[in-house]
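Priority: medium. Attachment 1 of 2:
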């Protein structure tokens, strides 16, 4: 009976995890993050490769997380991962804001056209400082 319960839990866990991951990846692609990257870098012919890389990254991230696989001298890769992760999350949030048309409406109403570069710089510095403070306070 115990083996049947474990098998059933494994099947349910894998099924629900697959459904949630598929929803997240669909959301990322639906927001247009991948196509926006391909458009800005003029590499639209490789868009399927980009989508595959996102899926493989999610799968490998889950495998490393679940099985506690450590990478030797992985501490050197943490800043690189943080940089790329921050870029991706920033692009993801900007794509979401673009879809919702929040910034264009706000900028037109408040007439902030001349200070947009300073606003973007302030958001980037604030996010970076907040991340540094968060990780510094964890130790």
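Attachment 2 of 2:
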């Amino acid at each position: 009976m115990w083996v049947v319960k474990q098998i059933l839990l494994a099947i349910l866990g894998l099924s629900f995890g697959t459904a949630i991951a598929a929803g997240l990846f669909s959301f990322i692609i639906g927001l247009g993050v991948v196509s926006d990257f391909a458009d800005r870098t003029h590499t639209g012919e490789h868009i399927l490769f980009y989508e595959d890389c996102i899926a493989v990254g999610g799968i490998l991230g889950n495998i490393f997380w679940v099985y506690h696989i450590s990478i030797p001298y992985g501490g050197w890769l943490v800043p690189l991962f943080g940089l790329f992760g921050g870029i991706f999350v920033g692009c993801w949030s900007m794509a979401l804001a673009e879809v919702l048309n929040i910034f264009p409406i706000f900028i037109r109403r408040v007439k902030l056209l001349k200070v947009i570069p300073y606003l973007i710089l302030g958001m980037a510095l604030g996010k970076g400082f907040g991340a540094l403070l968060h990780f510094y306070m964890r130790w």
